[in-house]
Design a protein that fits this description.
The protein is an alpha/beta fold. The chain has 2 domains: about 5-160, Thiamin diphosphate (ThDP)-binding fold, Pyr/PP domains (Rossmann fold), CATH 3.40.50; about 185-380, Rossmann fold. Helix content is about 35%, strand content about 15%. It contains 14 helices and 14 strands. The chain has helices at about 5-15, 30-40, 45-60, 75-85, 110-120, 140-150, 200-205, 220-230, 245-255, 265-270, 275-280, 315-320, 330-340, 365-380; strands at about 20, 40-45, 65-70, 90-95, 125-130, 150-155, 215, 235, 260-265, 285-295, 295, 305, 325-330, 345-350. Strand 3 (about 65-70), helix 4 (about 75-85) and strand 4 (about 90-95) form a beta-alpha-beta unit. Helix 3 runs parallel beside helix 4, helix 7 (about 200-205) packs parallel to helix 8 (about 220-230) and helix 7 (about 200-205) runs parallel beside helix 13 (about 330-340). The longest helix is centred in the first third of the chain and has 13 residues, at about 45-60. It is elongated, with a radius of gyration of 21 Å.
């Protein structure tokens, strides 16, 4: 019997892969079904968020792998370089390489054929997997990935599965309670006054609730302000990869029992809003997302974001399926909300006025940040 999908699954298990994320591709649909059955698996809304989630899982000591098609690489290069590669975190990427073998969709040709050069130009090692005999070298490379903290892409030709005897189980849509239209409204829109506090002032009120928790902080001024107010070994300061704070926090929350707090911003969330849908689907019981919304891109010159004119982030979170939400604009409102909350996914929409506090740069290297958080996560 010829089951290349099962053979690859066996190699992944032998290498200790224990956390997976994916987006669909028709060419590897049977493989993806097996991945979902055999491993902890998170379905993604976008490839880039998977990089963030896998980075969080890697910080917790997991061995993550992603499964995507070649077109998705274009959505994740920056995150791979400025997050996974920069912090020297391990990630195996299995790419269904379209556009090279009996491809019927012309739009798949450019990225599929150019993929090896794109990876090479990005400094990402890759291996061409064209036939089953090429499987033999995968385990050795996986062992190296997780030992050395490297990224490696495995380019899977559609020819691998051509004569497979594995059969798809067919589309199976999980049964969820579905809420549409007004069924999901109104949100917990508690009366709030107009914002009068800066992000720094809200962070001062937030600081006592961060003690002993994993804190993932958005890049730029938010990270520097948190360092000034409440530096602790469990803080993961983002130095790049805008838009992935919630994704990283989600990856950590799904792989540890410790409490995780994400300090995100309106500009960042608007860049990757699908992360809220993935969080709602995954429902980690230890994750709090605090979206400090000052209606501006604070670290790039305070240009206005759409949250300042037409987007309500609490409504957005609720619409994506996060049921426990609240809107605040005062220190006491924020403190009371965090005191009252006990357990479960929680989204706090904290309104602020634009403005940054003049604080020094973070005097800690990115690798020391990573190692400190990893030590905290492995402590009993």
């Amino acid at each position: 019997m010829r089951y290349p999908e099962k053979e690859l699954i066996g190699i992944l298990k032998a290498s200790g892969v224990d956390f997976t994320c994916s987006l669909p591709c028709e060419k590897i649909k049977v493989l993806l079904e097996m991945v979902q059955d055999e491993f902890t698996h998170i379905p993604l809304t976008r490839e880039e968020e998977g990089v963030g989630i896998c980075a969080g899982a890697a910080l917790s000591g997991r061995r993550p792998a992603m499964f995507i098609q070649s077109s998705g690489i274009g959505n994740m290069i920056n995150a791979l370089l400025s997050l996974t590669g920069f912090y020297e975190l391990p990630l195996a990427i299995f790419i269904s390489q379209r556009g090279i073998y009996k491809e019927k969709i012309a739009a798949q040709f450019p990225m599929g054929k150019g993929l090896p050069k794109i990876l090479e130009g990005s400094g990402i090692d890759h291996t061409l997997i064209r036939k089953r005999e090429d499987f033999k070298g995968i385990k050795r490379k996986l062992d190296s990935i997780y030992k050395k903290g490297k990224i490696h892409a495995f380019l899977l030709s559609p020819a691998l599965w051509e004569n497979s005897e594995a059969i798809s189980k067919g589309i199976s849509v999980q049964s969820h309670e579905r809420r549409t239209g007004m069924d999901s409204l109104p949100c917990t829109l508690h009366p709030v006054s107009r914002p009068a506090l800066t992000r720094y002032e809200l962070l001062e009120a937030l600081a006592p609730f961060l003690s002993g928790k994993v804190v993932v902080c958005n890049l730029g001024f938010p990270a520097k302000e948190v360092f000034k107010i409440k530096h602790q070994p469990s803080n993961f300061y983002m130095l790049g990869s805008m838009g992935l704070a919630t994704s990283i926090g989600l990856g950590i929350g799904l792989t540890t029992k410790k409490e995780v707090v994400v300090i995100d911003g309106d500009g960042s969330i608007l860049m990757n809003p699908g992360s809220l849908a993935t969080a709602a689907y995954s429902k980690p019981q230890n994750l709090t997302i605090i979206a400090i919304d000052n209606g501006a891109y604070g670290s790039t010159g305070s240009q206005p974001t759409l949250a300042g004119s037409c987007v309500d982030l609490e409504l957005t979170a609720k619409g994506f399926g996060i049921r426990n939400t609240i809107k605040v604009s005062k220190k006491k409102q924020l403190a009371d909300a965090l005191k009252k909350h006990k357990r479960g996914l929680f989204f706090v929409h904290a309104l602020a006025v634009p403005g940054n506090r003049e604080v020094p740069n973070i005097p800690v290297t990115h690798l020391d940040i990573k190692k400190s958080v990893q030590r905290f996560l492995t402590e009993k």
